[in-house]
Amino acid sequence: MLLHQSTWIEIGQFLDRSRTVVIPIGSNEQHGPTGLLGTDWMCPEIIAHQAQKDADILIGPTFNIGMAQHHLGFPGTISLRPSTFIAAIGDWTRSLAAHGFEKILFLNGHGGNIATIEAAFSELYAEASFARRPAGFALKLCNWWDLEGVGELARAQFPTGHGTHATPSEIAITQWAYPDSIKTADYSPRIAPAGPIREAQDFRARHPDGRMGSDPALATPEKGGELVALAAKGLVAAVHAFSGEAMPD
Ligand code: NI
């Protein structure tokens, strides 16, 4: 079930049978010479939308701008600074919690978001801790590549040249979902260099075409479809496990 394609009446009825919602969260940032700028929000959205076809789970709107300051040297990247990101995650969570959602699972598609999402969770929990009251909600971060079996499948599909940014696995997922937007480009070296992540100018100097350790030409729509099917199954299992966790009175 997709929240944005539901009425308030349908969401009210959903709350009678479940208090869990999934929020795909990512980033709009350069993904090398062949990757779409939306890759990091499209992947969790594609997986979550696929998962709800076979299970009674609720998927919220995609939070599609994240912490991508290091990619700002490339046209099209849009970034929230960590403090803005924390504030926005807070208000999304407070809105959902006000309606009675008790379990909010953020399905993340961008490694650069992890530290800030975890900090946002701590800010939200701290409000309850300082007031000596229960939060009334539990928050969970799942990276799509950590869903059950997905890392193993990606390593089998791409034994070399996977890398950490503009990876063939994430690009394969967007190719499967958006076959009309598959891009090609000449690039070298075949496998991009790895390196530290600092500010945007430093990043662009180290990674001139935007890739980090990857060879995105290894991506195919078929491999993307395999990853989506497995990840969607893993997401349903993660949602059910999270929903089953007891909340204190
Ligand atoms: Ni990415």
UniProtKB/TrEMBL annotation:
InterPro entries: Creatininase-like_sf (IPR024087), Creatininase/forma_Hydrolase (IPR003785). Its cofactor is Zn(2+). Keywords: Hydrolase, Metal-binding, Zinc. Gene3D superfamilies: Creatininase (3.40.50.10310). This is Creatininase family protein. One of its GO terms (biological process) is riboflavin biosynthetic process. It comes from Pseudomonas proteolytica. GO terms for molecular function: hydrolase activity, acting on carbon-nitrogen (but not peptide) bonds, in linear amides; metal ion binding. The lineage of its organism: Bacteria, Pseudomonadati, Pseudomonadota, Gammaproteobacteria, Pseudomonadales. Belongs to the creatininase superfamily.
